[in-house]
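Hi team,

As requested, here is the filled-out complex form for the 6-O-phosphono-beta-D-fructofuranose run. I kept the field names the same as last time so the parser does not choke. Let me know if anything looks off before we queue the next batch.

— J.
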Amino acid sequence: MKRIGVFTSGGDAPGMNACIRAVVRASIYNDLEIYGINSGYTGMIRGDIFPMDARSVSNTVQRGGTILKSSRSDEFRTPEGRKKAFKQLQKAGIEGLVAIGGDGTFAGARALASEFRIPVVGAPGTIDNDLYGTDYTIGYDTALNTAMAAIDKIRDTADSHSRLFFVEVMGRDAGFIALNTGIASGAEAVLIPEQETSLEEVIGKLEKGRHKTSSIIIVAEGDDGGGAYEIARKVEEKFTHYDTRVVILGHIQRGGSPTCLDRVLASRMGSAAVEALQEGMSNIMVGMVNGEIKYTSFDKACKYHQEINRNLLNLVDVLSV
Ligand code: F6P
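And here is what came back:
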């Protein structure tokens, strides 16, 4: 293998640049030519592919977002789209790929690798931390810290006005951000997609905590209760003790300079992905398990989800008495 390509796809995550940088530099260190592909699968189909060198990634390790841009491509979900993409890769002489993204990215990579026999290795880049085969995904730690800092600020104003806040954090299918920021910011309750939401329980908790000067309930975006506004509306009808407000944290959780943990994680994963390609591996995701690099097939990474630690849900109850 002489020339490999790297791209980012799906929702961007802080630390993706540190991972791109590691892929570029590890490639050059190992005498491989490295090409960047802009805008994920959309750019691959368009042939937006260009050579990179060690200096192409200078001054990027600390930057949020992705210098290679990202997209969610419907065309790539079709066999015709993937054929077009493969032809562009062939034209650019690319013999292997590093895909940085989440499960959607890996589902696409798996299809490409099996239909056209081009080796693809993935590095998990998503703030959601929902991928099977790794303890942490790139961007998750930064998103946690961003959300936590925002919730701390909300607590200040909530306390000053004796209010109840519903704070919605990201996580369409996963409650990792909600659960961990909930514990870290002293939330009264955390509502996540992995557990059915009982409004009676939420109201029961609020009743018990009537004496508190403020209350914060963290709602994961994908919770089955219908989102923070809907839950707040229903709770307000039955519980009038507090003045209620809703905050949707949204995309601020995806931006910002990556934490040290994310930069180191991304650097290790990027370098390991290049090594894996050189060792002839394909159709696998690089993961970090107990501090060690581990490989998981795209099949498993896409099929299973990382499990929520249910003890943490119990901890929220214990700590919010
Ligand atoms: O997958 C990461 C994520 O940030 C999810 O938590 C969220 O549901 C989704 O992306 C939002 O995607 P978009 O930016 O395309 O609206």
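Two things worth flagging: The pocket of 6-O-phosphono-beta-D-fructofuranose is lined by residues 11, 102, 126-128, 170-172, 221, 254 (CB under 6 Å). The two ends are 59 Å apart (CA to CA).

Thanks,
J.
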